[in-house]
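This part of the workshop introduces the protein records we will be handling. An example says more than a description, so a record of this kind follows.
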Amino acid sequence: MADGEGAAVAWGERLTRCLDSFGRPKRLFVFVNPFGGKKCAKKIYDTEIKPLFESCGCEHHTARDRVEVASSLDLVEYDGVVCVSGDGVLVEVSDTSRSLMSEFF
């Protein structure tokens, strides 16, 4: 096994143990901005992040249109939201999610 593959498996096992300690399902929603990170975010997700999620059995769904999806996303369906991009996507998603949460609380 190549060093990179071994590292991915080790991280996957560690992530699995960590998530299992919460006693929660592992459902993540991932926003990938293909133009973020010097236009490398999609490649980074596909080659580095997605294999980690898959190796630890995380259920994950991806989207690109963050504002539209974030405003209609049922946050109860997921345990976490992951943003693969620069700061802008994180700010947009958190602002949209915060405004949605304020409607409920």
